[in-house]
Amino acid sequence: MPRLDRNAEQEAAKAAAAARVHLGPIRAVPDLLARMGVPWEPVLRHARIIRADLEDQELSAPFDRIDRLLGECVARSRCEHFGLLIGQTVDLRSFGIPGRIALSAPTAGDALAALARHFVLHDSGGSPRVAVANGTAVMSYGIHVPGVHNAQQVYDLSVAAMCNVLRQLCGAEWRPDAVTLPRKRPPDVGPYREVLRAPLRFDALHAAVVFPSHWLTRRLPDADALLYRLLESRAVQEAADHGPLLCRETRRAIRDLQQAGDCSRAAVAGRLGLHERTLGRRLQAAGTTFRQLLDDTRAEVAKQLLHDTRSPIGRIAESLGYTDATAFTRAFRGWTGMTPREFRTGSRPAG
Length: 351
Known about the structure:
By secondary structure, the chain is α+β, with helices and mostly antiparallel strands.
């Protein structure tokens, strides 16, 4: 068993290094830093990114470099909502092929579904999800790569980008019912109100935009059935050429289904098109288990929510699929050697 745990840790480290994201959404970083009077060259150098690369829509970088870049931008600019400001410069064209498929889709709903379906071609460290119930649509984004240090900035960027995408698809009259952010309420909410133009809910469990579902039926002015089919075909082929990485895709499925409220082995295997036993055998051959990946994903999400939000521990436990806070506390202590409360307050366990 210890060997399996070590292999799982190695797999998590590899997952963090292998996850990549295209550079389009951060293209505005140098100009924004310059407007703030901050030299941008050392910031890009710190993240090992070259400015010329930001102009190439085909280039990507490891997810952890983008994470590092956002953290350095905040440190140098002293702007705690830097991710939000970058997110407001993002639109569908920033997402490469998935964005172009969305632009040629018949309706806004088809566009968002295509974006979510093919988003891995743009970003393999996180994924969007669209859910509809009782006349309400929710578009959310979740990080599933382990070891992210600046999740607040990534989520700020994501909600601003989602609002931009929805305005691009639905028109200037589109209005969100709410925007939820998995971070503490900042001292100054003015920038969030200005950029997001929505009722704000901090200390949330997910980064999401909530809006009336009737907007999903809106016909798109640039719909092009032929282009849509061609780009869909290209996206499917490109994904096949990259080849699936089972542990990465299992983490992604767990994170997506976690937001839907069912990340059981059966649900994850179904999402991956595998039988439960087949998934188990293949993961074991890769040196891990479904339980280990589930626990790793739960641990990452739990630590982010405990650190970045004031959401009640019982609510966090429920969102992760635990029936009560006691079971969650027992699991969390096993992951970290601390209780959730000790982790949140930064205190050391007694003894």
